[in-house]
Design goal:
mainly alpha, 3 strands, about 70% helix, elongated, disordered C terminus
């Protein structure tokens, strides 16, 4: 995993407005004016957010006439999801292993108690 790259992406995504932009673009490409309609800030502020997302490789921009169209990059989504799974799955696997091991210990203790109880009954 590239920690530098992942850190850069997470920093770009850390702003709530940028998270909302990513959410909007997850439905498909949008013109900047359509994105702006979902916010209460100016066009220069939108440009600032879009530049940060573009610099982080999260979105791409195409210009058609006077309009800028923004798209969530598919390679970003794939790579980001893979990085998050890689980063967090170790803990999930460890918890599952420990849970499985804990279950085995409980089963061993139950068998031992049952065996001991059976021996006590036979002895009496």
């Amino acid at each position: 995993m590239n920690y530098e790259r992942t850190s850069l992406v997470l920093k770009a995504m850390a702003d709530p407005n940028r998270m909302k932009i990513i959410d909007l673009l997850s439905y498909g490409s949008l013109c900047g004016c359509d994105v702006l309609a979902h916010f209460h800030f100016t066009q220069p502020t939108l440009s600032h957010h879009m530049k940060a997302l573009e610099k982080a490789g999260i979105i791409s921009v195409t210009k058609q006439s006077q309009w800028h169209y923004y798209t969530l990059r598919e390679d970003f989504v794939r790579d980001f999801m893979s990085s998050m799974v890689q980063l967090l799955s170790k803990r999930v696997e460890e918890d599952a292993y420990q849970s499985h091991e804990g279950k085995n210990e409980i089963e061993k203790n139950d068998k031992l108690q049952n065996h001991t109880l059976s021996k006590e009954i036979i002895i009496k």
